[in-house]
Amino acid sequence: MDAAMFENLREILKDACRLTRDRPVVAGVSGGADSLALLDALVSAGYKVIVAHLNHKLREEAQNDANAVERLAARMNLLSIIESVDVNAYARERTLSIEEAAREVRYRFLFAQARKYNAQAVAVGHTADDQVETVLMHFLQGAGLGGLKGMTYRTLLPAYDENIPLVRPLLNLWHEDTVVYCAMKRLHPQEDVTNSDLSYMRNRLRHLLIPVLESYNPRFREAIWRTSQVLAADHEVLTEIVDDAWNTALSESGSGYLAFDRDKFASFPVGIQRSLVRRACQSLCETWRDLDFDTVSRVTAFISAPDQASSMDLPHGLRLFVEEGIVYLAMKDADSPGRWPQASGEFLPVSVPGQVGLPGEWTLFSELWEIPALARERIQKNEDPFQVWLDADKLTGRLGLRSRRPGDRFEPYGMEGHTMKLSDFFINVKLPQRARETWPLLCLGDEIIWVPGYRPAHSYRVVESTRRLMYFKLTRSAE
CB-based contacts of 424: which residues, under 8 Å, 6+ apart? Predict the structure, then answer.
């Protein structure tokens, strides 16, 4: 590594990685040439460094690597944290590949140390070689622009920490550069024999596929690296467009779910739709990093075709469904998304006047009206199905809110005293099935006298002879 290259690395640390010298950086140091070059470069540039090494217990000599890193940190007068995890056991427990498990436990360890020591970032020694291999893996898996752009100098990994970034200062250096750097600095890298194990996909790319591709283009690696840089710039432009589309189409978000306006979503070009799908899935399931093309296409086709099924199950516990022009993407264990009120099976007393709070910031307000002419005028002009006036003189008994019960019947307004199963009424008014179990019902004792959002009971309607009225309004505080 010549002086110009090192000076460029200093600029990358400052500008691209946005590191400062007032807080420490946790450096992931495996003991190989890449991580040793990273460590020495950080220290030489004047940054406070905490050395972190995780023994994956994948090979017998791994403890020797841990000892070597600990000794090096001591010679450099740096704090070191050395821990070990049985990656094989971790992979079996979670049905992960060894590569996936190793990545997960490594990042969990590094970010835990960053939080513990109030570090500004976690730094790892990924090089241009790693960038080429990453882009190739994404290409073989059918990734979009977000995958083909490869890794960036600075990024957030919310699955591990929402605030502390991961930085990769060596992305423009090749592994050969770090080997030369270590020789110049008299650093002694440890050789990881698993780097030649062809059971790992990344090693097969490195030792088998890339040499074949280089027989077609001797500068293949440089070509892929340059392509990743071009696509990264294009991705920045696309991200701005997707941000605008996201803000336009997103109608609601909550714990474990997102909701989009279907018409607005479907109005975007299919490329923007796919980007929205990827962002939505990854924001709800942060460990789902590699959405395949078929899954994304199924979702966009589902959203764009109103005559198809109303729901679809997706991997990683996600579910997609459409209700009243709104597309919901939700974790299966999420709080019930939707713009409707909910009630429990217990009878919740209602006093008049008064108010009763329900989940989701919904509130039932009640008043007594004793000017029937004014009430009739308001009733005639009312277009809000979540407010109702009832004959107060007929409401003698316990008033309360509850959800439906087995055997419930209802006497809808306009049916002249005839009752029907509440379940049939819900079907007739097309109440979304998910909402039926917890839909609030205003009751007089056991009798349902109003289904908010739909109709009052016929027997309790306001008639010419009504002199006193009770007014009820169910509203959401956001409204």
Answer: none
Per-residue confidence (pLDDT) for residue 255, from 0 to 100? 78
For the stretch 60-70, pLDDT in tens is 788 889 999 99
- Compute the distance between CA of residue 217 and CA of residue 227 in angstroms, rounded to an integer: 14
Q: What length is written for the chain?
A: 479
Q: What is the DSSP letter of 335?
A: -
- 274: helix, strand or coil: helix
Closest listed residue to residue 284, CA positions, set 257, 306, 307: 257
Q: Domains of the chain, with CATH numbers? A: 3-127+150-200 (3.40.50.620), 241-331 (1.20.59.20), 348-476 (3.50.40.10)
Q: How far apart are CA 330 and CA 259, in angstroms?
A: 8
**pLDDT tens digit string along 321-338?**
887 788 888 887 665 555
Low-confidence stretches of the chain (pLDDT < 50) are 479
CA dihedral 196, 201, 206, 210 (to 10 degrees): 140
Distance CA 319, CA 328 (A): 8
Q: Do 402 and 343 contact (CB within 8 A), yes or no?
A: yes
CA–CA dist 418, 457 (Å, integer): 10
**Bridge partners, 326 (sequence order):** 261, 323
How far does Cα 400 stand from its chain's mean position? 38
Answer for the pair 19, 167: CB distance below 8 angstroms, yes or no: yes
Using alpha carbons only, give the angle 81, 85, 90 rounded to the nearest 5 degrees: 150
Phi-psi region of 317 (alpha: psi -120 to 50; beta: other; left: phi over 0): left
DSSP 147-184: HHT---SEEEETTTEEEEEEE-TTTTS-HHHHHHHHHH
